[in-house]
Amino acid sequence: MRVVLVDGYTDEPAGLGVPPYLGIYPRYAYGAIKKAKKDARVFYLTIDDLRATFLGEQGIRTRNKTPNFPKVKEILEKADLVVYIGGLHTPGKYLSAVPGSVEEVARFLRDVKATKILGGPAFMGSASMGGVKITSRELQLAESVFDYVVYGDLEAFLFDYLTSPKDADPFRFRNYNELRDYAIIGAEVVKQFPDYPDFVIVEIETQRGCPKAMGIGGCSFCTEPVRYKTVEDRPVEDVVAEVKALYDLGVRHFRVGRQSCIFSYMARPNGRVPVPNPDVIEKLFAGIRSVAPDVKTLHVDNANPAVIANYPEESVRIAKALIKYGTPGNVVAFGLESADPKVAKLNNLNATAEETYEAVKILNEVGAKRGYNGMPWLLPGINIIFGLPGETKKSYEITFQFLKRLLDDGLMVRRINIRQVVVFPGTPLWHMRSKVKTEKHKRLIQHYRHKIRHEIDLPMLKRVVPVGTVLRDVRAEVFDNGLTYGRQIGSYPLIVGIPKEVPLNRFYDVLIVDHGFRSITGIPVPINVNRESPKVLQLIPGIGKKTATRILAKRPFRSREEFFEVVDPGVREVLKDLVEL
């Protein structure tokens, strides 16, 4: 039996599967298929493979491995089963991979003769479409192209379909006992991932559902409690076993990100704010480290700031465990959404502005120290959503002033993510959608987005990564318009613009020389002062155009000391260990 998995990439509130991240869905699907049919040949393709095959080379921007395009067509033609995985619920800015849509992949697969299955969170629609029902044009098209649309867990349906087709239920959800084998067996698919082995970061699941939602209901906009009606914590031993399987295959980058709140893993229910369990979280990360001793990235994702603010002692212990067993550059994303208390109450948001402030302060106290890769060990991020019901003109100013308070008080936030609300079927917001005011406040939203980027993001970025910082292991991913763009591998890595072309898919240590609103400019080090271009030399702090001209006139230098005689004393301090001849 020949099965093709087509990864259209997924981006959800509690999970990321856009390269270089390999999400849970392809791995679990692969594992279910192989458990059901040991002799099945499973081919992993991406939406980029299909774009490049059907649209030509311009269909993709970059990749670590170049596909054999004629072979992609042959694989599809000979397939018995084709499974498409996709779903874009929290769209972001992507560097070298762009998620696909059901509508897009339907065009590519329409004429494929194999049985076709649509899975992952795609059935709920796409945020890029503004939120859609199953009866929308996009998914009507899907139902005309795909033989099965899976509304439950894809892996559960695949196993049932391949072992007892008549009993396969597209609405069935699996439990963690069932998942155990799928996760271990499915680890093998990573070998077919384009960024394998050096650049792939694997998303690891620890929990399903939202602990806060079980107490008082979920946030108005969130799809997580729509899909998962209860909270289920994955056993520590199963998580560790999956990490071991991946590590043994050569994976060195992990994000324990597939949960609504890492601080609520194995927490005790307590109404709005569950009681955290630092002992079991330390056990989890100690276990991961025991089977992955030379891990290069071990990060997390979401956390409810109300948990940290209301249980500071337990949360400090958890934060220290994340630092002890994790790696620097870690970011915990806080879902504030709005600092306006009226908006927070109407939309049943996670935390108040004061709770979020306290949580930011606690993480700064524990995690602001700079680590060996140039980034602080553990910082918060802030998620903002514009357009929620109850917003007034005053709401945007309240949120702005909250962010300004963080800045003015000397605190660090690694990332402020501003999204416009998307209304998905089944969420409380679906029933309040007449109150969504994105069009009414369109100009205000644009104004405050611009204001936050200029007055908060830029000075905050300068604080988090000052000029003169050296970021280690920045992967060069894309070359465009005279600049090479790269980033470290991690949970929310900064995009670094390198002002020249360098070979892609290599790691560089980079000296930070300038800041944008959400990205930075860096120069690979060590710097060869006898060969480097004038354009790059003048970007070095303390040099500029005049000194760069003087350097060019004096080249070649026979020693580092000879070079430092030509520049100001401050340049020596910045470049003392970063110059080569």
Automatic annotation (TrEMBL):
<dbReference type="InterPro" id="IPR058240">
    <property type="entry name" value="rSAM_sf"/>
</dbReference>
<dbReference type="InterPro" id="IPR006638">
    <property type="entry name" value="Elp3/MiaA/NifB-like_rSAM"/>
</dbReference>
<dbReference type="InterPro" id="IPR023404">
    <property type="entry name" value="rSAM_horseshoe"/>
</dbReference>
<dbReference type="Pfam" id="PF04055">
    <property type="entry name" value="Radical_SAM"/>
</dbReference>
<protein>
    <submittedName>
        <fullName>Radical SAM protein, elongator protein 3/MiaB/NifB related</fullName>
    </submittedName>
</protein>
<dbReference type="InterPro" id="IPR007197">
    <property type="entry name" value="rSAM"/>
</dbReference>
<dbReference type="GO" id="GO:0051536">
    <property type="term" value="F:iron-sulfur cluster binding"/>
</dbReference>
<dbReference type="GO" id="GO:0003824">
    <property type="term" value="F:catalytic activity"/>
</dbReference>
<feature type="domain" description="Radical SAM core">
    <location>
        <begin position="196"/>
        <end position="455"/>
    </location>
</feature>
